[in-house]
Every structure is written in C-alpha cells, then in structure tokens.
Amino acid sequence: MSIHGIDVSQFQGNINWTNVKSTGTQFVMIRAGYGQGNIDPEFTRNAQECSRRGIPFGVYWFSYAYTEEMAKREAEYCIQAVENYEVQYPVCFDFEYASVNYAAGEGVTVTRQLASSLVNAFCSRVEELGYFAMYYSNLDFLNRMFDASLRKKYALWYAQYANEPSASGMAMWQYSDSGSISGISGNVDQNIAYYDLASVISKAGLNKIKGEVTTPAPSPSSPADVIIYTVKPGDNLSSIAARYGTTYQTLASYNNIENPNLIYAGQKIRIPVGHYETSARYYTIKSGDTLSGIALRFGTTVAELQRLNGIQNPNLIYAGTTIRV
User: Fold this and answer.
1) Three-state secondary-structure class, residue 8
2) Which of 60, 95, 174, 278: CA 20 to 30 A from 133?
C-alpha cells in the first residue's frame, strides 16, 4: 500500500488548499510548533483548511528539548495545539541536527542515550494523552543517535531523498524535499505512507477520532442489526468493505449507492451484521518483524496484541510464533 502525502510548515507560506486537494494529495503532516510552546505561525490556518476540505492530516513538533522533562512538555504543547481538530494521522517527534546544535549551545552534548530518551519521553507522553505517536529520523540518526529498540515501540517516519529507502519497516517515507504541487509556491516535502494510518488510528480509538458505532437498525428488507459507520476523509467503499470482511458491491447495494466511487465524509454507511467478519485472525511472526509493525499491518495497537497474546515484553517476539491479531 502506498498513500501519497506532503508535509508543510510556515516555510511553505500561505497555501492554497483548494488547489492542493485537487492534486489528489491523500494526507498532510503539518508542523504544529517547535520548542517550548511555540506554535507554527501557519498551523491554525493549515489545520483549519485541511479540516474544512476533508484532507486527512497529522502533525509534527520540531524539538529543541535536551532533557526528558522538556520533551514531555513539548508533547503536551503539541497536543494542546491539536486537541480541537480531528487529527487522523500520527503525532510525530522531530529531532534533527538543529536540535543537537541547540543543545550544544546550552552546554549539553546529545548522546545516543539522551536522544533515545527524548524520543521515549515525547512519544510516551503523546500515548498517555490518547494519541498515536511517531518519530522522525534519517539514516544517520537511526545508526548513530536512536536506539534500535525505539522502532519496536513507535512508528517511524523515515527521511531519505532517494529512489529507494536504505532502511525498512518504516510507517512513512519522506522521499523528496523538492516536490512541486499546485497551491504551494516553491518546494515541498513529499511522503509515502505504507499503511492506512488513518484506519489504524481510528480502529484503535486514538486521536479522539469519532469512528464507527454499533447500533441496532432496521434493514431495508429485514429487522437484522447493522453496523453504522460514519465515513471519514480519505475513506473509500473498498477500504470500508475490507475492514468489515465484505465487498464494496455488497455495501453499494445495501446502501443504494449508485456510484461506489462517490462517498463523502460524514455519510452513514450501513453494514449488515451478517457480513461483519468477527472471527479471530492469526499471524505467524517472520524474521525481522516487530510488534509495532505487525500492529500497523493489521490495524491494531501493540498494547492490544500484548493483551490478546499474553506478551509481557513487546521487544521479545520470535520468528515462527503464531499470534492472534
């Protein structure tokens, strides 16, 4: 799966979001702010415009933290900035060379241990606040600054401007910093999401997303119960059908949808209970798998996989073991 998006900040200026939407951009990562409580000057407008036009978005916070407490506060500032919006994509910790240089100016040398602890502090606080956490890294920081265990706990947004990424297992790849799209003057970063992150987040009940609810409702031809699903920006009938173990043809017929390519955010889709797949699923762990990667693949969370399978340490899973997903 490849879902294409961009990331923006004040440096993209006043964006024409009508034009951006017309390009088929599927998601946006917006800089919410930086440091200790500084909101990006364009954040409010960018978030409002994406919300108004139904463009799914996540956010990132550029870090100038050099203690765990500062990183936690940055997480709190970030969530305060976004709590009035429907953030369908992750909340990301962005720690880069400028972050390291700032710490050096404050007399602090950023070691691998410190950098990793900052990721943990920010991401764990984001999760405590009910949001989906991610961290940003290039290959140098993966090798030199961030402990490998982080990739087993949090989703990775990986930056490498190349034809193919050198790393693997990331949730999102920033593959260019020189993209050009209608509505934005100058260059813009381009990204690919390898998972339907909006679906993962919604199904896990994170980011305060208003997802589906189960409610009894009369069928057009019988009194059977149905699932009532509220379409969210970025949804299509095929993805909704796959989520509930049915087909888009069944949903189109059941809901009198003439064109299955035309559904809209806020629309109510009825899914007959008889077509809702409730049987347990299982997955056999392969070499190189991580619990976070498996969770992303199957639209669940690490915590839920631990609960279902009695896994105490998410960093200790073994190839050949079959787990319930």
Assistant:
1) strand
2) 278
Taking residues 314-324, what's their average pLDDT?
78
Average of per-residue pLDDT across 234-239:
75
DSSP-derived letter for residue 220 is: S
Q: Is 268 helix (H, G, I), strand (E, B) or coil?
A: strand
DSSP, collapsed to helix, strand or coil, labels residue 175 as strand
Q: How confident is the model at residue 214 (pLDDT cuts 50, 70, 90)?
A: very low
Cα separation, 228 vs 243, in Å, equals 13
Sheet containing 268-272, strands listed edge to edge, beginning at the edge strand earlier in sequence:
213-215, 226-230, 268-272
Please list the residues that pair with 5 across neighbouring strands: 27, 191
Confidence of residue 245 (pLDDT cuts 50, 70, 90): low
Pick the CATH number of 226-272 from 3.10.350.10, 2.60.40.1180, 3.30.70.360, 3.40.50.2000: 3.10.350.10
Same CATH fold assignment for domains 226-272 and 282-324: yes
pLDDT tens per residue across span 78-124: 999 999 899 999 999 999 999 999 999 999 999 999 999 999 999 99
Judge: domain 3-204, CATH 3.20.20.80: yes
Residue ranges in the chain assigned as alpha helix (H): 17-22, 43-53, 68-82, 97-105, 112-128, 139-144, 197-203, 237-243, 248-254, 291-297, 302-309
The backbone torsions φ and ψ at residue 139, rounded to the nearest 5 degrees and listed phi first, read -65, -40
The Cα–Cα gap between 322 and 325 comes to 9
Nearest CA to 240 among 165, 250, 180?
A: 250
- pTM of the entire predicted model: 0.67
Query: Per-domain residue ranges for the chain?
Result: 3-204, 226-272, 282-324
Residue 153 contacts residue 101 (beta carbons within 8 Å): no
